[in-house]
Design goal:
About 45% of the residues lie in helices and about 15% in strands. By secondary structure, it is an alpha/beta fold. It has a 5-stranded parallel beta sheet, sandwiched between helices. It is elongated.
Length: about 220
């Protein structure tokens, strides 16, 4: 199987999770973290899911799954230990041409979920195409040791720079040499090592007077 890698914007979209055990809870929290409107269908629920219900963070149906639960959904995740039910969820989703993932059953998925390293807006996804989730998790742990907080900070900084440049100059191609100069000048290393004065000097040298950490970001931890 050759999978097409993609990052989905699910903010404000209805996503359905069937099953609210330990696996379902992880899937629910992952969807909520990305701004999804989550509906959960499950007879039982973990304390975490019950807390989400009480806080009004999710819609919860404490009953068995029904086909109509998929109406208006964008994406569905099956997280039950019932193989017959999981297959039914998948077949119902396929009929409606919905994105569907059945946990730990690649054959019943039209998309699979990678292991993920997050550093702010930096997202590194690792997939073994379903061959070895354990190895994907091992690679995630390795990458977590390589990519630290400074990668989140640099994206905050360059994002603010890009926003300001675009406000005065709508030619993104002209900005590439500036960002290359910042990267080649060691902006990442300066952020990582906390060399704030050197960082401000680099910003002013490459971008001009008025460009510094405070003017771009205010008081940001780590910068």
């Amino acid at each position: 199987m050759s999978y097409y890698p993609i990052n989905l914007n699910i903010a404000g979209r209805r996503c359905v999770v069937v099953g609210a055990g330990a696996v379902g809870t992880r899937k629910i929290n992952g969807l909520l973290a990305c701004g999804a409107m989550v509906t959960v269908v499950s007879v039982d629920a973990t304390p975490c899911v019950q807390s989400l219900v009480q806080d009004g963070d999710i819609i919860y149906h404490g009953r068995a799954y029904r086909q109509k639960d998929l109406e208006g959904a964008f994406l569905v995740i099956g997280a039950t230990n019932n193989e017959t039910l999981n297959r039914q969820i998948y077949e119902d989703a396929e009929k409606r041409q919905l994105l569907c993932n059945i946990a730990d059953q690649p054959a019943l998925c039209n998309f699979i979920l990678p292991a993920v390293v997050r550093r702010g807006d930096l997202v590194i996804a690792i997939s073994t195409s379903g061959k070895s989730p354990a190895f994907a998790k091992k690679m995630r742990r390795d990458l977590e040791g390589i990519y630290g907080r400074e990668y989140a900070d640099i994206l905050e900084l360059v994002g603010a720079i890009r926003k300001r440049l675009l406000a005065v100059d709508h030619a993104p191609e002209a900005h590439k040499p500036l960002f290359n100069a910042l990267i080649d000048g060691g902006v990442l290393e300066m952020i990582r090592d906390g060399r704030h004065l050197a960082l401000d000097a680099l910003l002013a040298d490459v971008l001009g007077a008025g460009y510094n950490r405070k003017s771009l970001l205010g008081d940001v931890e780590g910068l």
